[in-house]
Amino acid sequence: MDADELTAPVTIGVEAYISEDYARAERDNLWRKVWQQVGRVEDLPKVGSYLTYDILDDSVVVVRTADNTFRAHHNVCMHRGRRLVDMPEGAKSACGHKKSFVCGFHGWTYDQDGNCIHIPEKADWQGSLTPGNTHLAPVNVDTWGGWVWINMDPAAGPLRDYLEPAATMLDPFRLQDMRCKWRKWLYFQCNWKVAMEAFNETYHVATTHPQFNKFGNFRGWAAAHGRHSNIGYDAPKDLEETKSKIRLGTGSDPRVSTAEMQLYTLEETNATTTKTLVDAAKRLVDELPEDAAADKVLEHWLASARRDDAARGVIWPTIDPKHLADSGTAWQIFPNFQIGQGLTTALCYSARPHGYDPHQCIFEAACYELFPKGEEPQTEWVYAPPDDPGWRSVLPQDFSNMAAVQQGMKSLGFGGPRPNPYMERSIANLHRNLAQYMGTGAPRQLATELER
Ligand code: FES
Ligand SMILES: [Fe+2]
Fold first, then answer.
1. pLDDT tens digit sequence for 254-280
2. Which keywords belong to this entry (predicted)?
3. Cβ pair 68, 44 in contact under 8 A
4. Which of 13, 22, 37, 419 could form a disulfide with 427 if both were Cys (CB 3.0 to 4.6 A apart)?
5. What is the position in ligand 1's atom list of the atom closest to the CA of 108?
6. Which of 368, 384, 386 is nearest to 376 (CA)?
7. Which atom of ligand 1 is nearest to the CA of 81?
8. Degrees, nearest 5: CA angle 387-42-115
9. 136 touches ligand 1 (CB under 6 Å)
10. What pLDDT band is residue 238 in, cutting at 50, 70 and 90?
């Protein structure tokens, strides 16, 4: 099945979500083969800054070794296999700064490039320990979008090739210039795919987040692009000309509904919009006549927000309107990273297994924004369980589906997900690609299923 065929209705087997054998097989067939985002470039500010990334049995340590050079190695000492950099209690990764890495067991010492530079009593090995056989085991590393990416497969192709066409579509958004406004992680009682699939479609919005319905009728789309996919909203009828990706409130008075939706979004998600956009939206009622057409409202609102940001040193990227429309609201980077890109802000999610239990995952959410130079906040990853009030009200609505979906997947009465062929195509595309890595679990044409 190729991406074009995903316009037809499909059904997906539940094995990918609930089978322990499948979860174990993912280690070798998926996680040890794909490029994975492991942190931000700005988290490694100096030569010697490092971070670790753990997934199932593997731990990788990434180090900045020069101004624009990063090295990644398996986080394991070549003497007797002790984990080289320990994980702090209760953390999801280790980070810091080191001139060299000293193994806590017998003191073998590695430099930032992974060379073993000190072995106590080395002569006892009678010359058999060489630079080649004591060097830490290398892992591919590269950067794109301001993120550091690793790939454990020695035969992996370049990151850029892997990311296309998402990289080219997202480059104009200058994600590398954004900085974290907040970032949080938590465990969910569901498979990592269930967690990603709670955010890679817009079909759930009307029911899971009914409070948005009053701001207008939004119909979302999803498109497959090879390994990756993207989602967005169809422009409302009277905005078809502008084809904007930006959701304007389309209530009876778009000036009012836009301001209300922006304010609500900022207060209840603390993401996907900015104070500048909210303040500019609030002024619409004073700056535009009552009968202003929706496209004029959109144009005026964005132009005044752009000016306000420029005045405080935040320069918006200039993106061709067609490119903006085609890029949608979010990209799903195979297999487990979603980038929800905006002009001055981004909301990103990732999920990965938590051990081999297919019913658990580690989930990360990070909100990015363009800040004036020198005013970027310093943030760290914060553990925040689903009931932490800091999540505010919208994301917990999504969280409430996670464990309930996972439980339903195990039911004798469930034959597998049937994603909406228009609005949930990213789900079908994820499983189409997964099946290629895993050798099993390809989506099946729904029409060929037997009727009950
Ligand atoms: S296991 Fe690392 S020095 Fe012995
Ligand atoms: Fe949602």
1. 999 999 999 999 999 999 999 999 999
2. 2Fe-2S, Dioxygenase, Iron, Iron-sulfur, Metal-binding, Oxidoreductase
3. no
4. 419
5. 3
6. 368
7. 1
8. 115
9. no
10. low
Domain count, the chain: 2
Q: Where in 197-341 does DSSP place strands (E)?
A: 220-225, 228-233, 330-333, 337-341
The reply to whether 68 and 215 lie within a common domain is: no
The residue assigned the tokens 């994975």 is 36
Contact 271, 281 (CB under 8 A): no
Residue 106 near ligand 1, beta carbon < 6 Å: yes
The residue whose CA is least distant from atom 1 of ligand 1 is 80
CB 258 within 8 Å of CB 293: no
Specify whether 69 is located in the same domain as 182: no
> For a substitution probing ligand 1, which of 76, 78, 85, 106 has the most ligand atoms within 8 Å of its CB?
106
Q: Could you tell me if residue 268 is inside a domain? A: no
Residues 23 and 56 in one domain: no
Separation of CA 286 from chain center: 38
Which sign, positive or negative, has the C-alpha torsion 29, 30, 33, 38? negative
Residue 449, CB half-sphere, CA atoms under 13 Å: how many? 16
Beta strands 382-383; 179-188: pairing state: parallel
3 with 48, same domain?
no
Q: Are 248 and 299 in contact (CB under 8 A)?
A: no
DSSP single-letter state for residue 431 = H
122 φ, ψ (degrees, to nearest 5): -60, -35
What percent of the chain clears pLDDT 70, i.e. is strictly above it? 94
Order of all β-strands in the sheet with 69-74? 36-40, 147-151, 138-144, 69-74, 58-66, 49-55, 95-97
Phi, psi of 39, deg, nearest 5: 160, 180
Mark 408-421 as b/e (b = at least 16 C-beta within 10 Å).
Answer: ebeeeeeebbbbbe
Contact 434, 12 (CB under 8 A): no
CATH code of the domain in which 208 resides: 3.90.380.10
Task: Report the CATH number at residue 135.
Answer: 2.102.10.10
Confidence band (pLDDT; 50, 70, 90) for 7? confident
